Amino acid sequence: MARISAKERQEKLEFINQKIFELFLREGFGSLTFYNIAEETGIRQSTLQSYHKTHTIPEALTGKVAPYFMSKLDMSNLSAFRDSWMTALNDSGFRNILSLLVGHITTADNLGELAGKGLLGLIAAIEAELGEEGRKSLNELMGLSVIEIALSKIDSTPKG
After folding, report:
1. Is 56 within 8 Å of 38 (Cβ atoms)?
2. Domains of the chain with CATH codes
3. What whole-number distance in Å separates Cα of residue 82 and Cα of residue 153?
4. Which InterPro entries match (predicted)?
5. Distance (Å) of CA 145 to CA 49, 87, 90, 98
6. Residues 156, 96, 16, 110: what is their CA dihedral angle, to the nearest 10 degrees?
7. pTM
8. Helix axes 113-155, 78-88, angle to 10 degrees
């Protein structure tokens, strides 16, 4: 089999990482298995494993999650922020990012770098644009979001 150049390898890694990100937005973090990534990319699992190990798959999300999440929010004023957050809850990517963040925060023994940076970055951005009232609104919206996400999982549970 012919070897690929460093440039081709980098391009393929970027393609794989973009597909991982798209899969995450659509299906959530739990969907990031080699089988699902192979289905998404059309690349054999064994080839994927030369680009990522199980513990490095989350690196594919680096630099993509925060811009996506923040692009859903209108921070021109408090009312627009609240409205845009509520609208964004209908977006699978926004919900999956929130689920990952809240899940990591609530289950980890110590707040990892990714979740910690994400949470602190979100707070800082909101406080910079909307001040203390924005922070209060974030607190309310985060609580409401956890409840809404949980209820959607209950509603989608097959009745037995």
Report:
1. no
2. 6-61 (1.10.10), 65-155 (1.10.357.10)
3. 23
4. Homeodomain-like_sf (IPR009057)
5. 35, 11, 11, 8
6. -120
7. 0.87
8. 60
